[in-house]
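Morning run. Coffee first, then this:
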Amino acid sequence: MEDAQSAPAYGRTNWRRFAVAVGVPTVIAGGLVLALAEGALAANFTVSGKQFKLSADKLVGNGFTQYSGELPTADKEKYPNGKIPAAMSGIRSADLWNLCQSVAVGPVTLRIEAGDDPNRPVHADELLIGMSTLGGDATFEDIQIGLDGSTLDQDGADSHGAPLSFGQQARKVTINGLRQEAYYTSASTFTLNGMNLKLHIGGSHECYYDED
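And here it is:
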């Protein structure tokens, strides 16, 4: 049973919770534009705390930064201080080939695919990602490691990490076989060429599965 019309057969699915969990990829699919008036982490937003997976055959980004940060959440039971620790990555301009993004809640998985045409990759500007894991074969050009997180400037954002926090940046990053789990993604523009969005009921439909 793998189509949305079969959903009533799964009476235990919490559709309200699912709607919250899939909010991030659904908004991205529509082209999210956030007004970050006071810097990347000063925006008025709250994340669900539900992670989503993203994979791509290849990512090429110009202007890369990475630093530690926190994301606000309403889940005070799991995060008593209302903050989720996250590794923050900013990329001024990025292209991704064969992008897949999925979020699973119980038997329901929302999956988005785009950029399968080699000549029309997914494109994002002013990309900001709050993640817990990142994997792949990465090549950095003109990298600087160990900078004060508040002084980073390669991605063009107004603010980054806290003063004296650890940070790194590079003029360019290329990641082959990208695998990522994230709580949050924003971009000033997110162009999903050849987008295909599907809601799956039952089965295995996440973009990738961790190897034991």
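The chain is about 5% helix and 50% strand. Good start to the day.
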